[in-house]
From TrEMBL:
Protein name: Capsule synthesis protein CapA domain-containing protein
Domain Capsule synthesis protein CapA: 44-306
Top-level taxon of origin: Bacteria
PANTHER family cross-referenced by the UniProt entry: CAPSULE BIOSYNTHESIS PROTEIN CAPA, POLYGLUTAMINE SYNTHESIS ACCESSORY PROTEIN RV0574C-RELATED
Xref: InterPro entries: Capsule_synth_CapA, CW_Biosynth-Accessory, Metallo-depent_PP-like
Cleaved signal peptide residues: 1-22
Alphabetical UniProt keywords: Signal
Similarity field: Belongs to the CapA family.
SMART domains xrefs: PGA_cap
Organism encoding this protein: Treponema denticola H1-T
Gene3D superfamilies: 3.60.21.10
Pfam families xrefs: PGA_cap
Length: 395
């Protein structure tokens, strides 16, 4: 009988052990269930310097050749931004410096080359007066109709004189991007100046622009606010002025996330800046908030005829810098719908290279330079050295 009791007791304890172990196993497996992954969204934006058109540019037979060496870069991002430094008016003849004009075939090649977003506010916008502005609007609308399957955007021009500055809202891959093109410099102060986004580079003018930008940001919720700014400063300067750095920070404090600047026709430095903001909800005891903003102080020329006559004897001559620039690619990230403060900047060196009849764009690499004839190879090696000397970030 005792043996039977011991036997049954053994069976009971063994069964209890397996039951308890089974429960613990269930608890462990539940705690190890795969967690929901974060929703990560990335956006890649490319920015260029000035798309110019001197006579040597618009006289070439095939404009598409300009983009052959960089087309794959510009077609494999999400959006590419370019500053068109000329009217695009079919009713006016082709014209070079000082009063530019192109026809829409030239802009069509830029679209085929990968450009999506165009800045039209700069000092050459009204080179052809009101007719040139109307012609540019007409040409761009015709190209938008032609490229229905490729969304195109622009900023900087007004249909009527009394229009206020109005940013363009671009929606891409679930991102909302606000874009505004403004110039602080114009060549003609006639009636046509009221048909473009011109902001006077005075204290009063800049205060007015800051208030406008702040209002735009409040009224148009977005992930990124990009400002194309054509600068009121001397051309060909390589150094970033302290006054410009202060102005860009003020723009960021007003609501801008990316300042993309042009006019000097040469490449200047860029930086990711830590900008302090004031929390206006507690004015009596303001707490400092921070945001990151990206500043491109001058993107130089993307394509032009300014270095058509190469100075092989003096590669350091100031005009030689007009032929070298970068494509700046910025990578933004959202995690679970929240924009991350870090942004990745990847500059891609490019140069204008003179083929037989016209300049084209080449990736400015050591490997490409080695393919050139001796005279050109020596020149471009020196140019690469000079670019890296004043812009160490290119090394």
């Amino acid at each position: 009988m005792k043996k039977n009791l011991n036997y049954y007791l053994f069976l009971f304890i063994t069964a209890a052990f397996f039951i308890l172990n089974s429960c613990n196993s269930t608890e462990i497996s539940e705690s190890n269930l795969p967690q929901k992954e974060n929703d990560i969204s990335e956006l890649v934006l490319s920015f260029s310097g000035d798309i110019m058109a001197h006579d040597v540019n618009f006289k070439m037979k095939d404009y598409n050749r300009i983009y052959d060496d960089v087309r794959d870069i510009l077609l494999n991002d999400d959006l590419t931004f370019g500053n068109v430094e000329t009217p695009v008016c079919e009713e006016r003849p082709l014209s070079s410096f000082p009063c530019f004009n192109i026809h829409k075939d030239y802009l069509r090649a830029a679209i085929e080359g990968g450009f999506d977003v165009f800045s039209f506010a700069n000092n050459h916008t009204n080179d052809q007066g009101i007719q040139g502005i109307d012609g540019t609007i007409k040409s761009f609308n015709a190209l938008k109709e032609e490229y229905k399957n490729k969304e195109l955007f622009s900023s900087g021009l007004k249909n009527k004189e009394d229009e206020d500055f109005k940013p363009v809202l671009i929606e891409k891959k679930g991102w909302k991007i606000l874009f505004l093109s403004v110039t602080e410099l114009i060549n003609s102060h006639g009636k046509s100046k009221h048909r473009l986004y011109y902001s006077e580079p005075t204290k009063t003018g800049r205060e007015k622009l800051l208030l406008s930008i702040k209002k735009m940001r409040e009224e148009n919720p977005c992930d990124i606010f990009i400002l194309s700014l054509h600068l009121n400063e001397a051309e060909y300067g390589l150094k970033v002025l302290d006054s410009k750095k202060a102005w860009f920070k003020a723009l960021a404090q007003a609501g801008i996330d990316v300042v993309w600047a042009n006019h000097p026709h040469v490449l200047q430095d860029w930086e990711l800046s830590d900008v302090e903001l004031l929390n206006e909800e507690t004015p009596d005891s303001p707490s400092k908030l921070k945001k990151n903003a990206f500043f491109m102080y001058s993107m130089g020329n993307f394509i032009s005829g300014q270095r058509w006559k190469v100075n092989y004897a003096d590669p350091a001559y100031y005009r030689e810098y007009t032929g070298d620039s970068i494509i700046m690619q910025l990578r933004f990230k959202k995690i679970d719908g929240i924009l991350q403060p870090e942004m990745e900047a990847a500059p891609i060196l490019i140069t204008n290279y003179n083929e037989k009849d016209a300049p084209v764009i080449k990736r400015f690499t050591q490997e490409w330079i080695e393919t050139l004839p001796e005279k050109e190879r020596a020149y471009y090696l020196k140019r690469l050295e000079l670019m890296r000397a004043y812009l160490p970030k290119l090394k």
